[in-house]
Amino acid sequence: MSTKSPTDVLKSKLDAKNFANLMAIANPKLHAYVADAIELCQPDSVWVSTDSPEDVEYTRTMAARLGEEKPLAMPGHTIHFDGMEDQGRDREVTKYLVPPGQTLSKALNQMERQAGLKEVRALMAGSMKGRIMVVRFMNLGPNNSAFSVPCLECTDSFYVSHSLNLLYRLGYEEFKRLGAKAEFFATLHSAGKVDARMTSAEPDKKRIYIDYSNDNVYSVNTQYAGNTVGLKKLALRLSIRKADREGWLAEHMFLAAIKGKGGRKTYLAGAFPSACGKTSTAMLPGETILGDDIAYFRAVDGRCMAANAEAGIFGIIQNVNSKDDPAIWDVLNKPGEVVFSNVLVKDAKPYWLGMGVEPPADGENFSGAWTKGKKDAKGAEIACAHKNARYAVSLKALANCDVDLDTPAGVELQGILYGGRDARAYVPCQQSFDWQHGIAAYGASLETETTFATIGQEGVSEINLMSIQDFVAIPLGKYVQNNLDFAKKLKKVPLVFGVNYFLRDDQGKFLNGMRDKHVWVKWMEKRIHGEAGAAVSPTGLIPLYEDLKPLFAELVGKDYTQADYVKQFTIRVPENLKKIDRVEAFHKAEADACPGVMAVLAAQRKRLLEAQKQWGDYISPEKLPRQ
Ligand code: SPV
Ligand code: MN
After folding, report:
1. pLDDT at 605
2. 322 Cα to the center of ligand 1, angstroms
3. 54, 129, 228, 355 - which has most CB atoms within 10 Å?
4. Are 86 and 200 in contact (CB under 8 A)?
């Protein structure tokens, strides 16, 4: 522990201007935090961003000058590379620091707090020698709103600072306004030792530790934004705890407005695990987007109000092409501020997988100089771009950005949807019988497969409840219970839907087309307004053929046949019974067996068994009674 006061530490490292900018925020806790970060990481100097246009520009300039980003041919576009072993969120080294006497669910990666602090602080000691520490003030949720959560990030990466500018609301003025009242989340990040390409050079010493009892996060020896931009998944973990304390919800959900009859707008939120169709559902042509990753919900006068915690998109850039994702394609192909990461670059142009353009046979990618056929250390061929390559862009740069993105009151939510990666059981789209059924049977039963968005083996089946399991920093059962209880605060409860874009037939062929999701979402919009019927299946209320046929014609240009409908919506009783067994076993063993969930699953099993007795194993939707 230092003998110097925080003010003395700050005075010794900050020049007069930066010192004044920091002190303009009257928050002693914040001063002490920055002083501790300085003493620990020992940067050469400290830069405090005030969010002025010059400061925003300085971040851009420094990211380029230090080689963390390189300019691309298109004005405003840059490329950033992360190291070979730093291409996604790293579950193994991301841990909650649990104080003595507390426990978290078994499914959550955790360690004893003191031991964790000792380990991560030792790795960060002196980590910023020779570098500048950047101090950033940001805000989650719209500024000056009940949703706002002030956040501080100290980092030695101007790429991280640049990402903050694109993805979040600037918060220096908010911090000044709040002064000592700001209860802020704080992230301390250091890229650690870097190589000549400015990528973190010691991946074996990568650690992302969440000291939740203090609302602090440590991140070291990594650059990948999902591990380093504190306001993203690291703050989501802290937000879930804050929401638990204060009686609201922080969710891993997109937020979008769907147009309907007479131009009405209906707001939907949706949870999908990474790489399961979330951004493309939030970006359907003709609709408007408020967010693609993290939403906050609050009950206000009995209504469910929602806001995007973020203000930009850190999106996967695999299979983004002009046909399937026109709005994203547009922004990635015109001048404007975009940071690409881990794509292939040749002649200052970016190339990615599934772009619809033949990539060049050489260039620079996340592995350095790349030529087709290049192998990694294990002998596996390195693709031209990483599957988890990303782009960062401000939502306001999108032509389809919703006008209410920054509205302090948020927007009124009328529906939520949960989508997994379930090859076997759930139909492509259904509505729950009520809120409890939806939360338990769709959200808390969400099955998926691991994808490239996290480091490790792909294609392993797992349960990822509400697609948020990696980020739940309270006991899982408590998190689910909070979701179940939330409806009690509402007079108008949003409808809950389940979608599954990954159902396959017995030959392994997908039963959904890429664009079918637009039909499901428009059907939901009609259900919300009482303009579509439904059949009652054991797992939920399913669409009627006559409502889907015109939607397919209008939105997909497809002649949707009765046979297509039967294939997609046949209830597979044995597969659904097995699904319940898996989900129940998971909740019993790992997720504290929330009683509300167990009761809903038991009732669903009973309905399935009764239906099986009446109609057999595979039930055509035409046989089911109408609502
Ligand atoms: C996800 O993987 O769910 C993301 C990107 O949204 S990350 O920042 O890596 O979490
Ligand atoms: Mn996400």
Report:
1. 98
2. 23
3. 228
4. yes
Question: So what's the pLDDT on residue 1?
Answer: 53
Q: Which residues fall within 8 angstroms of residue 478, CB to CB, at 6 or more apart?
A: 244, 592
State which residues have CB under 5 angstroms from ligand 2, the bound ion.
293
Mutate to test the pocket of ligand 1, among 80, 86, 89 (most ligand atoms within 8 A of CB): 89
Q: Is 276 a catalytic residue?
A: yes
Ligand 1, atom 7: closest residue by C-alpha: 226
**Using CA atoms, how far apart are residues 441 and 458, in angstroms rounded to an integer?**
25
Pocket test for ligand 1, best of 236, 274, 317 (most atoms within 8 A of CB): 274
pLDDT of residue 2: 62
Amino acid 103: pLDDT = 83
The C-alpha atoms of residue 244 and residue 105 are separated, in whole angstroms, by 16
Q: What per-residue confidence (pLDDT) applies to 461?
A: 82
For position 458, what pLDDT does the model report? 73
Q: What is the DSSP letter of 440?
A: I
Expressed in angstroms and rounded, the spacing between residue 313 Cα and the centre of ligand 2 is 10
pLDDT of residue 3: 79
Residues 510 and 577: their CA atoms lie apart, in Å, by 21
Domains present along the chain, CATH in parentheses? 6-68+93-246 (3.40.449.10), 250-305+405-623 (3.90.228.20), 314-397 (2.170.8.10)
Tokens representing residue 159 in the block: 């790429």
On whether the CB atoms of residues 187 and 234 are closer than 8 A, the answer is yes
Burial of 215 (0-12, 13-18, 19+ CB in 10 A): buried
Instruction: Report the separation in Å between the CA atom of 488 and the middle of ligand 1, taken as the mean of its atom positions.
Output: 31
Measuring CA to CA, how many Å separate 587 from each of 440, 476, 573, 620? 11, 9, 21, 30
Length of the chain: 627
Of 521, 496, 495, 507, the C-alpha closest to 428 is 521
What is the per-residue pLDDT for 282?
94
CB 544 within 8 A of CB 535: yes
If you ran DSSP here, which 8-state letter would residue 485 be given?
A: H
292 lines ligand 1 (CB under 6 A): no
CB 332, CB 391: distance < 8 Å: yes
Closest atom, ligand 1, to C-alpha of 293: 6
Exposure class string for 488-522: b at 16+ Cβ within 10 A, else e: ebbeebbbbbbbbbbbeeeeeeebbeebbbbbbbb
Give yes or no for residue 226 CB within 6 A of ligand 1: yes
Residues of the chain above pLDDT 70, percent:
99
- The CA distance from 197 to 292, in Å, is 30
Is 426 in a helix, a strand, or coil? coil
Q: Which of 151, 154, 276, 594 is catalytic?
A: 276
**pTM given for the model:** 0.95
Q: How far apart are CA 323 and CA 193, in angstroms?
A: 42
* pLDDT of res. 627: 93
Whose Cα sits closest to atom 8 in ligand 1?
226
| Phi, psi angles (nearest 5°) of residue 470 | -60, -20
Residue numbers of the chain with a pLDDT score lower than 70: 1-2, 451, 453
As given in the structure block, the two tokens for residue 112 are 């004893």
> Would you say the CB of residue 453 lies under 6 angstroms from ligand 1?
yes
Q: Is the dihedral of CA 87, 92, 97, 103 positive or negative?
A: positive
- Packing angle of the helix pair 113-124, 28-41 (nearest 10 deg): 60
